[in-house]
């Protein structure tokens, strides 16, 4: 099926979604793999996602991989074992980033700095978070799908 919708105006800033989460939390894993990533996949033209993990390896992967980070995190979070999936997911989505660089980040000062920055961002939440996953939204204009507008599907694409 194809979605028959108009593209949003590029003059409108995208909706900014920030997710504060713990890397091994089952609820966070489910939210990322079953809700946030599929939504981002459909709405990435009008949506930006910032991930603020509590977990050193995740912070390093996000820092080192840039635009591929969300796909890597999704790959890891949807795997049976998050930590065992890290290296294969990194190689799949960011083959130019070596596992040695991630490991060096995790065990070095950079990893500690990244985790500290994430802790500062989390502590600055207002209102303060009471659980994870914790999601914040800023900016943008609601697309028709969020306003209850009917969406017409083109079913002739088989």
From TrEMBL:
Enzyme Commission number, as recorded: 1.8.-.-
Oligomeric form and interacting partners: Dimer; disulfide-linked.
Identification of the protein by name: Gamma-interferon-inducible lysosomal thiol reductase
Family: Belongs to the GILT family.
Role played: Lysosomal thiol reductase that can reduce protein disulfide bonds. Facilitates the complete unfolding of proteins destined for lysosomal degradation. Plays an important role in antigen processing.
Organism, scientific name: Dissostichus mawsoni
GO annotation terms (biological process): immune system process
Compartment annotation: Secreted; Lysosome
Record-linked InterPro entries: Interferon-induced_GILT (IPR004911)
Chief location bin: secreted
Key words of the record: Disulfide bond, Glycoprotein, Immunity, Lysosome, Oxidoreductase, Redox-active center, Secreted, Signal
Domain of life according to the entry: Eukaryota
PANTHER family the record matches: GAMMA-INTERFERON INDUCIBLE LYSOSOMAL THIOL REDUCTASE GILT, GAMMA-INTERFERON-INDUCIBLE LYSOSOMAL THIOL REDUCTASE-LIKE
Gene Ontology cellular component list: extracellular region; lysosome
One example GO MF annotation: oxidoreductase activity, acting on a sulfur group of donors, disulfide as acceptor
């Amino acid at each position: 099926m194809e979605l028959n919708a108009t593209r949003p105006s590029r003059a409108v800033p995208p909706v900014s979604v920030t997710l504060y989460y713990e890397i091994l939390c089952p609820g966070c894993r489910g939210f990322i793999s079953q809700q946030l990533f599929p939504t981002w996949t459909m709405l990435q033209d009008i949506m930006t996602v910032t991930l603020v993990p509590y977990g050193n390896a995740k912070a390093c992967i996000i820092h080192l991989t840039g635009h591929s980070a969300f796909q890597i995190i999704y790959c890891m979070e949807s795997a049976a074992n998050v930590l065992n999936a890290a290296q294969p997911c990194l190689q799949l989505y960011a083959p130019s980033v070596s596992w040695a660089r991630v490991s060096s980040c995790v065990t070095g000062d950079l990893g500690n700095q990244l985790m500290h920055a994430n802790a500062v961002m989390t502590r600055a939440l207002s209102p303060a978070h009471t659980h994870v996953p914790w999601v914040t939204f800023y900016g943008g204009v609601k697309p028709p799908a969020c306003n209850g507008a009917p969406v017409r599907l083109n079913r002739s694409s088989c």
